[in-house]
Amino acid sequence: MEQYILKTDKLTKIFGSHKTSDSISINVRKGAIYGLIGRNGAGKTTLMKMITGLSNPTSGSYSVKGYSGTELKNARRFVGSLIEAPGLYPDMTAFQNLKCKCLQCGIKDDERIMEVLSLVGLSGTGKKKTAKFSYGMKQRLGIAMSLIDRPELLVLDEPLNGLDPQGIHEFREMLLNLNQNGITLIISSHILDELAKIATDYGIIHKGRLVEETTAEELLARCESKVIIRTSGSEKAANILDRTSIRNFTVHDGTIEIHGHIDETGRINSALVSAGIVVDEIYVKSESLEDHYLRLTGGNES
Amino acid sequence: MTGLTKMYCYRMFRQKSLYIIWAITVVMILLNLQMIEQRTFSTLLCKSGTLVTMLSPLFTAIIFSADHSSGFIKNYAGSVSDKTVIIAARAVIILIQNLLSCCVVVISGLLLTRSIGDTKIAVVYTMCMLLAGLGCSFAVMLITDLFRKTVPALILTLAIGTGILCELISTITAFATDGDIIIKNYLLTGMFQIFGETQSSSDAVKVVLISVIYIAAALTASVFSIKKRDVI
After folding, report:
1. CA R_g for chain B
2. What pLDDT sits at residue A62?
3. Which residues in chain B are closer than 8 Å to A87, comparing Cβ atoms?
């Protein structure tokens, strides 16, 4: 059985002289929640458009469920997507928009429409036209549209944008539920903390290139941990640390950051206190997904 | 393709613009009836037939530009096995819409005049009306896909359907060639107008041939465009 539901091989997209995606090769495991991370203009949406058939790659290839090239047409119906803003007819109701999609997919049963509307919390919209929907409601309907044909792979581009905290929480629960029911998810998001709560795999894209692809477990292991010491005698403390063979540290504004040595906090504290240094605070800080991402992509680089 | 066609049909019959266009058609027929001396169906048809060539493309522009302006095309264009079926489905809808529009003209004309007049003229003109409507509609389908924005598509559609574009091009080329080339004789809306005035069999043949060329060229270009260009 195919382990990966989606594999891309050096997918490239060039607009004029600008390479939006540059030889991107990702592997999405079946059943995973794959977080695609990158800043605005990194190439996430372009990649998603290519794998959902909305954009033609300039070069490279990809396969869905093992189908590639001309055989991709056999796999298209297994992919649902919500790319950028939801595409909805403004003069139609939620039901009618979904009915259009059902007719296109060959789904005859209106029960499926009611089921999906209920799943996304829009079953009470009645005759309200989508032009009058709030942004959150449109997002939900967009998700419903992508779910109607029971996809095995769901590609969501910034689905949490514009949602309030309650909406984000409900959305997250819905995505986890979908994943537990066997749907593989590819999600791009700027809200890294939210992504970190659900993603099992990550692909970090920067300036059109894939800089890292990893699982959540590997990322956790790789994320750098530091010992943080707050003291008013930071200069003296630095000398003490140097004498105790701890050299990989930085000092600024009364705070010392020691890279690694997270199992030696007792020894470090003892050495400092013995030297008469008042330690206000000492703790271990693990690098968050955001910190890791910023470190990989150059932080505040424009 | 069946699914897409059903989807477009579902959408078409829920568009208010479809029924507004038909209502305008009937009103224009009523008005035209007041302006003709011989109140027969064939005479009325020669006066009113351009309504279909003007209004059907307008509907085409409205329904298909909405796919792009609303973004709904994202929901299905990526999941079809071959993007050519999108053009095929649209072609079927254009055919259905033009057939129905012609029926509106014929039925309302017959009901109002109660006299068919010259049967041969009526039949030939109805056929030319349908083909010219299809030709202009397919051309507009291509324009809609190329521009992907409602306003420019509608402006060009109105220019085509009302014959303004035809007159403009004719004036420019006549000026440039000192009247040697009359482009109106070669453009669909111009030829259809000429046929309405002369009702000659050779003019009818020209309308049919040029309509078929418009349809074939628009379909070919549309298929090429949808396969080569990104959907969004």
Report:
1. 18
2. 96
3. 70-75
